Amino acid sequence: FFFSRLIFGTLYPAYYSYKAVKSKDIKEYVKWMMYWIIFALFTTAETFTDIFLCWFPFYYELKIAFVAWLLSPYTKGSSLLYRKFVHPTLSSKEKEIDDCLVQAKDRSYDALVHFGKRGLNVAATAAVMAASKGQGALSERLRSFSMQDLSTIRGDSSSTVPPSVTVRTSSKQSQPKTSRSASEGTGSSGK
C-alpha cells in the first residue's frame, strides 16, 4: 500500500500539479488544488481509521481504490467530494476556523516567549553558579598559599629557592610540593 500510495497518491498528482502551474491553466490548477485538499483530509482521517479498521478485510485495497477514484478523470472523485462536502463545510465554518488559528498562533507565540525566557533564566543561573564555583575554587587556591609563597611568586629576587619548589597547596602540610615542571623533570630521569 505504501508504494502505490506514494506513486499514485503523491508523486503522480505532484507532477501534474507542476504541469498545471507551469502551463498556467487555471482549470487544471483548480482541479489539482481540490485533489490536494481532499488528499490532505484523507491522510488525516487515515491516521485514525488505520488504528480501528486495519483488521477489516481488504481495508488497504479499499484505500488504494479510493485514491484511484480520487485521481480518475472519469469519476472526478476529488472534485465531487470537494464541491459536495468540503467547500460547503469550510465556507460555513471559515470564521470559526480562522479565529481558532489566530488564537493558536497567539498561544504558540506566547508559549515560545515564555519557554524562551525560562530557558534564558536557567542558562543564566547555570552560568552564575559555574562562575561562583570557579571563583570559590580560585579563592581557595589563593588562601592555600602562605605569605612567603605569594612574595616568591611575585618575583622577590632575594629568595634563593626557586618559586616552583616553595609553592604549597595547604599551610597544614609540612612538605613542600613541587610544580609539574619540577616533578616531570625528576620523574622522567628516574624512569
Automatic annotation (TrEMBL):
UniProt keyword list: Membrane, Transmembrane, Transmembrane helix
Gene Ontology annotations for the cellular component aspect, listed alphabetically: cytoplasmic microtubule; endoplasmic reticulum membrane; endoplasmic reticulum tubular network
Biased composition (Polar residues): 172-191
Compartments in which it is found: Membrane
Ranges of compositional bias, category Low complexity: 157-171
Alphabetized Pfam families for the sequence: TB2_DP1_HVA22 (PF03134)
GO annotation (BP), single: endoplasmic reticulum tubular network organization
GO molecular function per UniProt: microtubule binding; olfactory receptor binding
Membrane topology of this protein: Multi-pass membrane protein
Transmembrane spans: 32-58
Location of the region described as Disordered in the Swiss-Prot/TrEMBL record: 152-191
Family that this chain belongs to: Belongs to the DP1 family.
PANTHER family, alphabetized: HVA22-LIKE PROTEINS, RECEPTOR EXPRESSION-ENHANCING PROTEIN 1
Designated name of the protein: Receptor expression-enhancing protein
